[in-house]
Design brief:
The chain is an alpha/beta fold. It is 25% helix and 25% strand. The strands form three sheets. Strands 3, 4, 5, 6, 7, 14 and 15 form a seven-stranded mixed β-sheet that branches. The chain binds NADP nicotinamide-adenine-dinucleotide phosphate (NAP).
């Protein structure tokens, strides 16, 4: 049996390129006692993967040159010498961009529910879903009826943040990169307003759509988007820095200019690292599953196919070509 793998071939400079990665093949090794073999079916594309390609350590170590690219994946156990993982069991974990992974169970979660497709455990019921949930409700300390602005609103985390805020009776405004995405946010998932940052002035539009100011600003984008949100904070606002996707491929990082607005608004700005909430994931999965079942949350996946297309598909996150949670079907 052959394992196809995407390995990190070189460290990117600026926007990642196809030849930053190499497609390799090797035989799947025989299992030792206590090991099992996973056939990966879907790999998750997450914006943070661009940061993992850099040298050094931030909240997690950069991927070593020549190593299989780190990624969350879901797959099925197809061979097992492990008492707790039986053949046919769906699992998820950081098993990398490869068709097969040998594991001893460390860091591997069993997918027990068959109510939703296994790939949803890479998105709404996986790491990104947990980020939206805890970022908004814990770090953002959202109160019923507040005004929420979420950037990157049509993406995986943005759509979920907006929908949770609507469940909590909030006014929700989002920014996204196309009219099609903005129409989806307002007409299909219930945002109060959506701003196309490519055709509208974000600072002006925020004044219009958040007349009493922004109480919770959930920022996925950074750069000038962060500044536009800061300029429109309400008194006591909480700014949750979830990510800064506009800056991940930039050689010169844009720093915020409007940060003194935190002072005049008596606000706060805080970062989230989702892994800090690991112990609380089950409660969030339970609540999100309940909302999905009740039709209170809609979930959109963007599925691409073919391991050899991985570099192009990953790049889609940074060009805005994805519309929904981006996954690669192997
Ligand atoms: N802190 C944590 O623990 C944690 C965990 C997971 C993810 N995150 C962060 O959460 C954010 C969202 O992740 P996601 O998985 O939900 O991805 P996503 O939103 O599904 O995909 C990325 C989207 O970002 C937008 N984008 C790309 N380049 C942009 C630019 N230059 N300016 C403005 N928007 C741009 C694009 O949408 P448009 O077409 O609208 O531009 C694109 O579709 C990322 O910043 C990620 O790093 C943080």
């Amino acid at each position: 049996m052959t394992n196809q793998q995407i390995r990190l071939a070189k460290r990117p400079s600026g926007m990642l390129a196809d030849d930053d990665f190499a497609l390799t093949e090797e035989a799947v090794p025989a299992l030792s006692d206590g090991q099992f073999l996973i056939q990966n079916e879907f790999v998750s594309l997450d914006p943070a993967m661009r940061g993992w390609m850099n040298e050094g350590t931030t909240y997690i170590r950069g991927v070593e040159l020549g190593a299989v690219m780190r990624a969350f994946a879901v797959g099925k156990v197809i061979q097992s010498n492990h008492p707790d993982f039986t053949i046919g069991q769906y699992v998820s974990g950081l098993t990398g961009v490869q068709t097969h992974a040998v594991s001893n169970g460390a860091g591997i979660e069993k997918i027990r529910s068959q109510d939703v497709p296994p790939s949803w455990y890479l998105g709404v019921l996986g790491m990104p879903g947990m980020t939206a949930y805890f970022g908004l409700l814990d770090k953002g300390a959202l109160q019923d009826g507040e005004t929420v602005f979420v950037s990157g609103a049509a993406g995986m985390i943005g759509t979920l943040v907006g929908q949770i805020a609507k469940i909590k009776g909030c006014r929700v405004v989002g920014s996204a990169g196309s009219d099609e995405k903005c129409a989806y946010l307002v007409n299909e998932i219930g945002f109060d307003a959506a701003i196309n940052y490519n055709t509208e002035s974000l600072p002006d539009a925020l004044k219009t759509h958040c007349p009493t100011g922004i109480d919770v600003f959930f920022d996925n984008v950074g750069g000038p988007t962060l500044d536009a949100g800061l300029a429109n904070l309400a008194r006591g606002a909480r700014v949750v820095i979830c990510g800064a996707i506009s800056q991940y491929n930039a050689s010169d990082m844009y720093g915020p200019k409007n940060y003194m607005k935190i002072v005049s608004a008596r606000g706060s700005m805080t970062g989230i690292i989702v892994f800090d909430f690991l112990a609380e994931y089950p409660e969030a999965v339970r609540q999100l599953s309940e909302w999905l079942k009740a039709g209170k949350i809609k979930y959109r996946e963007h599925v691409e196919t073919g391991i050899e297309r991985f570099p192009h598909v990953l790049r889609m996150l940074y060009t805005g070509e994805n519309f929904g949670k981006l996954v690669l079907k192997l």
